[in-house]
Write a structure and sequence with these properties.
Layout: H1 3-32, H2 39-52, H3 56-60, H4 68-76, H5 85-98, H6 105-123, H7 126-129, H8 131-152, H9 157-186, H10 189-195, H11 201-205, H12 212-224, H13 228-235, H14 241-249, H15 258-271, H16 278-292, H17 296-302, H18 304-326
Helix pairs in contact: 1-2, 1-4, 1-5, 1-8, 1-9, 1-12, 2-9, 5-6, 6-8, 9-12, 9-14, 9-15, 9-18, 15-16, 16-18
């Protein structure tokens, strides 16, 4: 396969996944903002949305204060923000159009129709009228895109590059979401450690009593990755922070967990391996193995933030390796 074609397919799927992840993140913040909370807590939640996407500085250059309306506009329809939903859907469509002959008619029409319909919904005022309904629509169109891809594409190299892009983007987003939201809910582990007289991270985290307030915020975090029902089915008890972390990091049967994403990346990477991809494949295999054989108490004991930061660095390094081995440089 031509590297330029692989490049367009890889980024097409990443942009679709990114649009969905942004919609999930904004939706959970909209739902959380309806709960009783102080103005400071509400602002921290919206700052977290920007932090997850590494958009705090670009936002500050355009807006004076952090508030729901401006953050939502910036993250949904601002074309100057390359990570906004509008920008992602546009980029996905442009990449799809560049490889129109490689895609099935159903995949192309789904991607193109999503872009056209999203613009119509924005023009119709749906973002201001019912933001949650708009975010659900974006999630649905992403599900539809994946379903049509799996259901109609020949499972050749083109298909594998689409899957690699989706899994890599999802792993990155789940790690960012978990990192930012975990610290917002339980407080920074390092601060807790100091306050508790240098207790281990895991021990310090358990000093905090779970409240009804915590329950709704933890459940909203789980819902942002479609994990609430999964959590109740797997653990059958009250929502506990360490169990949430375990579900979203180590459970290979949880579709949006880091373990499941890396299983998907490795599986598809093996199927497109070439003479120069041995090192990238080794890095992917090592990261997948680390997740497969880790324990959540060990991760929490050494610090969740440090673990997730290292994971994001390794995923970024893996993405660069894939670009170097297979794709046109971006």
């Amino acid at each position: 396969m031509l590297s330029r074609t692989a490049d367009h397919l890889f980024w097409m799927s990443r942009y679709i996944e990114r649009a969905e992840n942004t919609a999930r993140m904004l939706d959970v913040n909209v739902q959380t903002s309806l709960l009783p909370q102080s103005a400071e807590s509400a602002e921290l939640g919206w700052q977290g949305v920007l932090s997850i996407s590494e958009l705090t500085e670009p936002y500050a250059q355009r807006y004076k204060t952090v508030n729901p309306r401006d953050v939502t506009e910036f993250m949904v329809r601002d074309e100057r923000n390359a990570s906004s939903i509008l920008s992602c859907l546009k980029a996905a469509r442009e990449n799809a159009r560049a490889v129109r002959g490689t895609l099935t008619t159903e995949v192309w029409e789904t991607t193109n129709q999503t872009w056209l319909e999203f613009n119509r919904l924005l023009a119709d005022g749906m973002l201001a009228r019912d933001p949650s309904a708009l975010f659900e629509w974006v999630k649905f169109r992403s599900h539809l895109s994946r379903g049509v891809t799996v259901g109609t594409m020949l499972q050749d190299e083109a298909f594998h590059f689409l899957r690699i892009g989706s899994f890599l983007e999802r792993a990155d987003n789940t790690a960012r979401l978990l990192d930012v939201k975990f610290h917002a809910l339980k407080g920074d582990f390092h601060a807790a450690e100091a306050a508790a007289g240098l207790l281990p991270h895991g021990e310090a985290a358990q000093e905090t009593d779970d409240s009804e307030y915590d329950f709704y915020h933890w459940s909203s975090l789980l819902r942002s990755v479609s994990g609430f029902e999964v959590y109740r089915k797997v653990y059958r008890n009250v929502i506990q922070p360490e169990k949430v972390a375990e579900l979203l990091i180590l459970r290979p049967d949880m579709p949006r967990s880091l373990a499941a994403c890396m299983n998907g990346v490795l599986e598809n990477l093996k199927l497109v391996a070439n003479d120069q991809s041995a090192d990238t494949l080794r890095r992917a295999g090592r990261l997948q193995a680390d997740l497969a054989y880790s324990r959540i108490d060990e991760i929490l004991a050494t610090g969740l933030h440090a673990y997730l930061t290292q994971f994001l660095d390794r995923v970024s390094d893996l993405g660069m390796g894939i670009s170097r081995d297979f794709l046109v440089s971006h």
